[in-house]
Amino acid sequence: MSYCQVLDTRTVKKTRSIHYCDWCGGDIPIGSSCFKFVNIYEGNFNSQYFHPECEDALTRNGGEEYAIKCNHRGKTEEEWDDYKQQLGDSEDNYLKKLKTYADLKLEAK
Ligand SMILES: [Zn+2]
């Protein structure tokens, strides 16, 4: 495993340019809020951006390596499997619920 040193973690309240979430690969539109990690990975500076709910999933993933931009929004791989089995919900409905969740989380900060 490569060594990754996190230098800074912050909440961006309103993005000024479009970013792509490092967890799910989804876009983070201009003017929305997200989490930004600045790190050094293999000697290079990187900025990573996350949807608030994806940052949560990253935390729950417990520092395990993950497939960059290949995860489901706001879910670890395990949680996504469980979710599909339990609810059989459509991904569209899921994303609508997440929006509400992300707003609540940011208000609580
Ligand atoms: Zn995401």
What would your notes on this structure say?
It is a single chain. The chain is of the alpha+beta class. It has one domain: first zn-finger domain of poly(adp-ribose) polymerase-1. It contains three helices and five strands; from the N terminus they run βββββααα. It has helices spanning 52-60, 77-87, 91-108; strands at residues 4-12, 19-20, 27-28, 34-41, 44-50. A three-stranded antiparallel β-sheet has the order 1-4-5. A two-stranded antiparallel sheet has the order 2-3. The chain is globular, with a radius of gyration of 14 Å. The structure holds zinc ion.
Count of individual domains: 1
Strand order of the largest sheet: 1-4-5
Distance between termini? 33 Å
Helix content: 25-40%
Which helices and strands appear, and what pairs or packs with what?
Layout: E1 4-12, E2 19-20, E3 27-28, E4 34-41, E5 44-50, H1 52-60, H2 77-87, H3 91-108
Antiparallel strand pairs: 1-4, 2-3, 4-5
What are the defining features of this structure?
single chain; 109 residues; alpha+beta; first zn-finger domain of poly(adp-ribose) polymerase-1; 3-stranded antiparallel β-sheet; two-stranded antiparallel ribbon; 3 helices; binds zinc ion
